[in-house]
Amino acid sequence: xxxxxxxxxxxxxxxxxxxxxxxxxxxxxxxxxxxxxxxxxxxxxxxxxxxxxxxxxxxxxxxxxxxxxxxxxxxxxxxxxxxxxxxxxxxxxxxxxxxxxxxxxxxx
Length: 108
Hints:
By secondary structure, the chain is of the alpha+beta class.
């Protein structure tokens, strides 16, 4: 039996939606958000080169892998990025992320 990873997504307008992603799907959070219809540009295609997939982690930051130097360099280019900002392309989905709550930016 495959368990689902539940991610709670809040939009800039304050609306929330729960995504259920099958464990073992081997995608990044950016890929799942794009496939779910969120306005994530991901201009560089997930290479941590553009920061257009920036999210803020509301709950569950401790369950994420540490920020890489490349990701930190891109986040440093954003004037409104904070301690909880991450690039969705750099977050691989795994069971320990179950219950993660994030905020996406864009037109959703």
